[in-house]
Amino acid sequence: MSEDIRPLKARRFRKAVLDYLSPGKRTRLYDVLVRDHMEKLELIDAGYGRWLKRLLPYLVNYYGLQGKRILDVGCGTGELTVRMNLLGFETMGIDVHGRALDLAKILAVENRLPETTFVENNAERLPFAENSFDIVTMFSVLEHVDDQMLINSLLPELKRICRGLVYVLVPNRLKVSDDHTGLRFVSWMPKRLAEMYIKARGSKYRYFISASGLWDVSYRTLGRISSLFQCDFLLDFPSEEVIYPPFDRAKMITRIGKNVRIGNLKIFIGVPIPWKLMVRMGYPKEGFYPYLNLVAIPRKSRTTNSP
After folding, report:
1. 244 Cβ contact list (under 8 Å, min separation 6)
2. What's CA 276's distance to the chain center, in Å?
3. CA–CA distances in Å: residue 203 to residues 25, 181, 207, 242
4. Where are the domains of the chain?
5. 276 CB contacts (<8 Å, ≥6 apart)?
6. For a tag on the chain, would you pick the N or C end, based on fewer CB atoms within 10 A?
7. Global confidence as pTM
8. Alpha-carbon distances of 84 from 36, 40, 72, 89, 136, rounded to whole Å
9. What is the CA 155 to chain-centroid distance, rounded?
10. 148-203 pLDDT per residue, tens
11. Closest listed residue to residue 77, CA positions, set 48, 51, 97
């Protein structure tokens, strides 16, 4: 573990999180979420703290931002929001899930931050003035917002309150395995079919983290995200040195299929992606990363290195 990134103080928080997640025990998602919390607290070294320590100064310096005020949209239980504060960035977290924010406030207090670090909001309009934030972060949030809400309310609101840029980290639809259930090719299915398939697989794969308890994930390719953002934002790609996960943990997607073992042989069954040809034809190579790291610049903004 990196010596300069210490675990967050989280004794009360960890107990409260386990109580909160307990109805989901014996599901795969429960195990995924418990590990995710441990990683974001830096109790398991997944590199989140080191990533943010590199990323945030990079965004300020490269894009010529005037301040270090951040809004973490869809902050959930707040680990990354708290971490960004401890890294010296004035950060607020906002979410629609009140129970998750109750946990976030426990974590805030344990790390000597005020409970007002976190704000609950269920309205379409965000409770902030125009140009309030230099950076808006959306870490694994975009896939939980449907197209209609994104176009009609969220993107215009982000454009209104953001004077600098929006940083988006989102899984790529080209990924074969779903992060929540571990089931393969769920990301390629229409949402209704995916919901039926997951339900048919049984209680182990139950999805319980949305407000309704129903499947709320909308996987998108880079092309689809670009088309949704184009009216309000210009998209850019950060340096490969500050993306998450780093390349040693998440390789480019160059083929679609599955490795199967037949006797002592491991055989790949699937199809290659002509990614090199597509890149030569102008498609960004970043569109083949399993997790898309995107910088979205409001069209009203004038930043020194904007595309």
Report:
1. 47, 48, 51, 55, 169, 291, 293
2. 27
3. 10, 11, 9, 38
4. 11-250+289-298, 254-284
5. none
6. C
7. 0.93
8. 17, 11, 9, 6, 12
9. 16
10. 999 999 999 999 999 999 999 999 999 999 999 999 999 999 999 999 999 999 99
11. 97
Question: Is it true that the peptide bond before 245 is cis, omega within 30 degrees of 0?
Answer: yes
pLDDT digits (tens, 9 = 90+) for 228-252: 999 999 999 999 999 999 988 888 9
- What's the CATH number for 11-250+289-298? 3.40.50.150
* Those residues with Cβ within 8 angstroms of residue 24's Cβ, 6 or more apart along the chain or in another chain: 30, 33, 206, 208
Token digits of residue 116: 């007002």
Say which residue the tokens 């869809």 belong to.
Answer: 74
Q: Pick the closest to residue 201 from 34, 21, 29 (CA basis).
A: 29
CB 250 within 8 A of CB 291: yes
Taking 50 as the pLDDT cut, the residues of the chain under it are 1-3, 301, 303-307
Task: Reduce the secondary structure of the chain to three states and give it as a string.
Answer: CCCCCCCCCCHHHHHHHHHHHHHHCCCHHHHHHHHHHHHHCCCCCCCHHHHHHHHHHHHHHHCCCCCCEEEEECCCCCHHHHHHHHCCCEEEEEECCHHHHHHHHHHHHHCCCCHHHEEECCCCCCCCCCCCEEEEEEECCHHHCCHHHHHHHHHHHHHHHEEEEEEEEEEECCCCECCCCCCECHHHCCHHHHHHHHHHCCHHHCCCCCCCCCCCCCCECHHHHHHHHCCCEEEECCCHHHCCCCCCCCCCCCEEEEEEEECCEEEEEEEECCHHHHHHCCCCHHHHCCEEEEEEEECCCCCCCCC
Length of the chain: 307
Quick check: 31 and 102 in contact, CB under 8 A?
no
